[in-house]
Amino acid sequence: MNARDLPDIGIPSLVHLPPHSVEAEQAVLGGLLLVGADALDRIEGVIGVEDFYRDDHRRIFTAAKSLGESGKPVDAVTVAEALQSLGQLENVGGLSYIVALASNTPSAANIQRYAEIVRDKSILRGLYGVAIRTQAACMAQGLKDAEKIATEAETAMMRLLDRQGGEPVRAHDAIRGALREIDERRERGGKLAGQATGFENIDWITGGLEPGQLLILAARPSIGKTALALNIADNVASTGMPALFFTLEMTEQELAMRLMSARSGVAMTDMRSGTASPDDWHRLSAVCGDTADVPLFIDDRPGISVAYARAKARKIKRQHGLGLIVVDYLQLMKGPGENRTQEVGGISRALKGLAKELRVPVIALAQINRGVESRIDKRPQMSDLRESGDIEADADVIVMMHRNDGPEWHGLISLIVRKNRNGALGDITLQYDAPRLRFSDYLGQSPRSAPAKRPQRGFDD
């Protein structure tokens, strides 16, 4: 019995062609041959030569694009001549095929839509390739760990999907949008441009947490950066604006206990030791009821990638809306790169991209190098950011926390605003109730503090 004699039992063929649309590719090429350089302008940035599935179509597109870019006419005859000079005309089906492309395309009116189809099929082929490579990596036991395979697959997929960006905007249209924003701010009568953090001095300098903004909150360990970030996230969520907190270092229960301590005023030591009084227990129970409608979401998966964070943030935004993302902390995330410096740099760029994509402010916590502790002046500088100078370039705002020496600074924390792309620089002093992990505005005169100052040479670029 041979294969033709086997009964058809409904099993699909194991041989599949990759996703493609010959018709859409032919329509794009036909439109180019009909209209020429104008058609090239309409699909510029939508597709490239690598998006065509068939090799002959790649050759024809490359020839047409080269003619258009050099200012020469683009039509069936000129493209055929260009291919003939390269010795490729017969490889694409000869002059007859090129003429047929033009004659079988009634109009170039829909060329951009045809180009989008070609691009989408190309992305699908790319995703299929990622799936195949991921499958091979999974089967090659012992060569790579599961987390690394997942991170590489997520990164590759997001790189493909990131091609689906928007079109450039005319400066005139951008200016009209900026005027609307300025007018809205004027009508607010000097109120915050962004989301309030719940701390007046922070809001005064930063103008609030603005959509698309990446704010780096950096400190040495045990200064209180997680507590401050959680206080801000809780303040934002308490206004009804959903906040998403990625805690890579703690479990959700540990973070919840910190939140309960800050809200109730019950010391963490009493909660952990089980020595909370009946009154403390009453206040802790009240927190549970008070937060029932507070849209603060916690994700405690360790070692996440930005692609994972993006997927979760998109889901939260789609289901509930989203006003803030917090990552605790940046150097614990995973990303691509040949070394740790490149990896951290890629993570900071991706977080900025996430903020812009979702139009949501992102607060990323970061560690400061240990070397700051050996200096006479222990106030952290931007150069103290651990493992990557790219963080400094990617961030819109960099705030560095510092605990000053001396009894006059007891219970106070300095926030040093080292970078503020759209606002002031200087120092902020907050009161910190460390046993209860609770920050509050400090109303007194800060000891030896430098007053916040407006930029003297315009905004930081």
Automatic annotation (TrEMBL):
Enzyme type, top EC level: isomerase
Chain ranges of the SF4 helicase domain: 188-446
EC identifiers of the protein: 5.6.2.3
Matching Gene3D superfamilies: DNAb Helicase, Chain A (1.10.860.10), P-loop containing nucleotide triphosphate hydrolases (3.40.50.300)
Keyword Nucleotide-binding recorded: yes
Record bears the keyword Nucleotide-binding: yes
Chain positions covered by the region annotation Disordered: 442-461
Gene Ontology process terms (BP): DNA replication, synthesis of primer
Catalytic activity: ATP + H2O = ADP + phosphate + H(+)
Segments passing through the bilayer: none
GO cellular component: cytosol; primosome complex
Recorded GO MF terms: 5'-3' DNA helicase activity; ATP binding; DNA binding; hydrolase activity
Keywords: ATP-binding, DNA replication, DNA-binding, Helicase, Hydrolase, Isomerase, Nucleotide-binding, Primosome
Family per similarity comment: Belongs to the helicase family. DnaB subfamily.
Stated role: The main replicative DNA helicase, it participates in initiation and elongation during chromosome replication. Travels ahead of the DNA replisome, separating dsDNA into templates for DNA synthesis. A processive ATP-dependent 5'-3' DNA helicase it has DNA-dependent ATPase activity.
Name of the protein this chain belongs to: Replicative DNA helicase
Lineage: Bacteria, Pseudomonadati, Pseudomonadota, Betaproteobacteria, Nitrosomonadales
Gene name tied to this protein: dnaB
